[in-house]
Amino acid sequence: MLALALAACGAEPSTPSPGTSSGGNTLAMPERAMLGTAEIEASVVPTARISEAAARQYGIDRGDDRVLVLVSVRDGDAAPPVTVTGHARDLRGVRQSLAFAPVTVDGQVEHVATARAFGPDTLRLALEVAGVDGARTVLRFNREIPR
């Protein structure tokens, strides 16, 4: 999924991530968790860094004040059906509900949402991923949003 996020930004996976700065920013580094035997990866990428073609593929609008929250769930080569919900909170305490939608990209299902983010700031994200069997996991992580 990280390779997909980097490709969406027009970078090759072997290049530094688009969120990496000299300060070691981990903006595009994925957060990982398990849901049974399935691996979950969640990434945050400024929409302004995503190509127009990728934005169309994901069905999102690009902007300097938005980030893409991208969640991928894989169990081997399969993408098990899941529901993704969550919210983001900035340093001022403003909470945004994230409306995730499944999108098929290159034959793989990704779950995408956007959040408003005015850098510099820190977003605190809490994402819940639920499988059809009732299994649930929550990913809680922070991402620094650059200027």
SSE arrangement:
Elements: H1 2-8, E1 31-35, E2 38-46, H2 52-58, E3 66-74, E4 82-89, E5 95-98, E6 101-105, E7 108-116, E8 121-131, E9 136-145
Count of runs of 4 or more consecutive helical residues:
2
Alpha-carbon distance between the two ends: 25 Å
Query: Mind describing the biggest β-sheet?
Result: 5 strands, antiparallel
Q: What integer is the average pLDDT?
A: 84
Helix content: under 10%
What class would the helix/strand composition place it in? mainly beta
What is the 3D form? Answer: globular
**How much of the polypeptide forms β-strand, as a percent range?**
over 45%
Give the SSE string: HEEHEEEEEEE
Low-confidence stretches: 1-25
Radius of gyration, in angstroms, nearest whole number: 14 Å
Total strand count, please? 9
Please give a structural write-up.
The protein has 147 residues and is mainly beta. 10% of the residues lie in helices and 48% in strands. It has a 5-stranded antiparallel sheet, with no helix packed on it. β6 and β7 form a beta hairpin. The longest helix has 7 residues. The two termini are 25 Å apart. The N terminus is likely disordered.
Which tags fit this structure?
147 residues, four-stranded antiparallel β-sheet
Q: Summarize this, please?
A:
This protein is mainly beta and 147 residues long.
